[in-house]
UniProtKB/TrEMBL annotation:
It holds the Pfam family EnY2. Belongs to the ENY2 family. One of its GO terms (biological process) is mRNA export from nucleus. It is found in: Nucleus, Nucleoplasm. Its main location: nucleus. Component of the nuclear pore complex (NPC)-associated TREX-2 complex (transcription and export complex 2). Component of the SAGA transcription coactivator-HAT complex. Within the SAGA complex, participates to a subcomplex of SAGA called the DUB module (deubiquitination module). Component of the nuclear pore complex (NPC)-associated TREX-2 complex (transcription and export complex 2). Component of the SAGA transcription coactivator-HAT complex. Within the SAGA complex, participates in a subcomplex of SAGA called the DUB module (deubiquitination module). This is Transcription and mRNA export factor ENY2. The lineage of its organism: Eukaryota, Metazoa, Chordata, Craniata, Vertebrata. The keyword Transcription applies. Keywords: Activator, Chromatin regulator, mRNA transport, Nucleus, Protein transport, Transcription, Transcription regulation, Translocation, Transport.
C-alpha cells in the first residue's frame, strides 16, 4: 500500500471513529439538495433511460453513465466547504 493510500485509510478511520464522517455525509446531502444537484442528476437519469429504453438499461449501466456527470455537477463551493471541514477536523484531532 502506498503512503498516500495509508494516509487516506488513517484519515477515513479517524473520521469514522469520531462520527465526523456521518456528519459530513449529512452536510453534503443537504448542500447537494439545496443547490439542485439531486434534481439535475435525476433529470439526467431520466434522459439516459429515455434514450436507451427502460428495457435496455441496467442499474450498472445507469451508474456508469451518470457518475462522471454527477461528479462534474458538484459545485466548487460545496467541495471547498467539505474540504475545509475535513482540514479543520484533522487539525483539531492531529496525533
Amino acid at each position: 500500500m502506498s503512503k498516500d493510500s495509508q494516509m487516506r485509510a488513517v484519515i477515513n478511520q479517524k473520521l469514522i471513529e469520531m462520527g465526523e464522517r456521518e456528519r459530513l455525509k449529512e452536510l453534503l446531502r443537504a448542500k447537494l439538495i439545496e443547490c439542485g444537484w439531486r434534481d439535475q442528476l435525476k433529470a439526467h437519469c431520466k434522459e439516459v433511460i429515455k434514450e436507451k429504453g427502460l428495457e435496455n438499461v441496467t442499474v450498472e449501466d445507469l451508474v456508469a453513465g451518470i457518475t462522471p456527470k454527477g461528479r462534474a455537477l458538484v459545485p466548487d463551493s460545496v467541495k471547498k466547504e467539505l474540504l475545509q471541514r475535513i482540514r479543520a477536523f484533522l487539525a483539531q484531532h492531529a496525533t
